[in-house]
Amino acid sequence: xxxxxxxxxxxxxxxxxxxxxxxxxxxxxxxxxxxxxxxxxxxxxxxxxxxxxxxxxxxxxxxxxxxxxxxxxxxxxxxxxxxxxxxxxxxxxxxxxxxxxxxxxxxxxxxxxxxxxxxxxxxxxxxxxxxxxxxxxxxxxxxxxxxxxx
Length: 150
What we know:
Blueprint: H1 4-7, H2 21-30, E1 35-39, E2 45-50, H3 51-55, E3 66-69, E4 72-75, H4 79-89, H5 94-97, E5 99-100, H6 111-121, E6 125-130, E7 133-139, H7 140-145
Antiparallel strand pairs: 1-2, 2-5, 3-4, 6-7
């Protein structure tokens, strides 16, 4: 049975939370990747930036919807959700657009568990963390390569 350490990519492309969105977008496009881990100065995984986090910037500003009940306004969306969406639309830095505290696996996580995380959460890439540091990433292509006999 394959484990994350057997199939993960170890030549990592990462971005910092302070990087500008334009630079991060260029990095994703130039390397033809769907997402990139966000690490701090010590190499600790602090987030993940995906193409979908960047595409949201092209979205129209969400206008909150309300309905009235007994002369009171009831929001149809939570203000927390609205604030988060507005922040992503207006993001200038990676920190403002990224998904913080992403799901990750350890080097000894089995391929079945990784595949389940990808399918159940619609992930394309999952970071691999060992002793608090990012050591690799597993993408859907890495899993597909295990199907082909060598």
